[in-house]
Amino acid sequence: GQQVMQIPQYQHVQEGEDFTTYCNSSTTLSNIQWYKQRPGGHPVFLIQLVKSGEVKKQKRLTFQFGEAKKNSSLHITATQTTDVGTYFCAGARTLTFGKGTMLLVSP
Amino acid sequence: KAGVTQTPRYLIKTRGQQVTLSCSPISGHRSVSWYQQTPGQGLQFLFEYFSETQRNKGNFPGRFSGRQFSNSRSEMNVSTLELGDSALYLCASSLRTGGDSDTQYFGPGTRLTVL
Fold it and tell me: Do residues B24 and A60 touch, judged by C-beta distance below 8 A?
C-alpha cells in the first residue's frame, strides 16, 4: 500500500533559523496536504498541493510539490516560537499520513 | 460555524471492555473519517463513512468498527480492548465533493487509556 515518509523526525532550531521538512511517497500522489499539530492539539490543515512542481507560499511558509508528484517539502523562513508543533504531510483521499516532523524552537 | 466535536474527550477503560466514541461533523459535511494517533505509529487511518456507508477502511482488526447516522454523526466502537489500543482517536469531517481534494477538519480527539 501507499507509504509516506517524512524526514527529519525531529528538529530543534534557534528562533530566526530556517527549517525544512521533507515528505516522500512510495507512489505518485494526486495531491498532497500539509497539516500542523500543536502540542496537545489536533491536526490543522495548512495547504493542499495538486499540480506537478507547484509552489505555494503562506507568509513565512513555502510548500513545494515535486515534479514527479512523489515528494514534497515545507520550508519555514526565520522560525518563531509560534511555529512549534508537528508538521504532517498526507497523501490523498484516505490521507496516508507521514509520521511527522516535530519542530522545537528555542527563543 | 461550529467545528468538529468529539465526545468524550477522555476515557479510561480496562482490558476486555468495549468503548464507543462519538463524532459530530461540521454542519453540511457528509464525510467522517477516523484516525488513531499513537507516539510510535503516528496517525493511522481507521475508516471513512459517507452517507451512512463505509467507503474506505484502514488496516485495523475487526474489533474496530464504526457507523454513521442520517445526520452524518458518527460513532466508532472498539470491543475487547487491549493495552495497545491506548491512543488519541481523531475524527475528521469533510465535504467530500468529489475526487481526492477534500480538506479534512479534525476534532479535538478522544484520549483513550486502557489499563
Answer: no
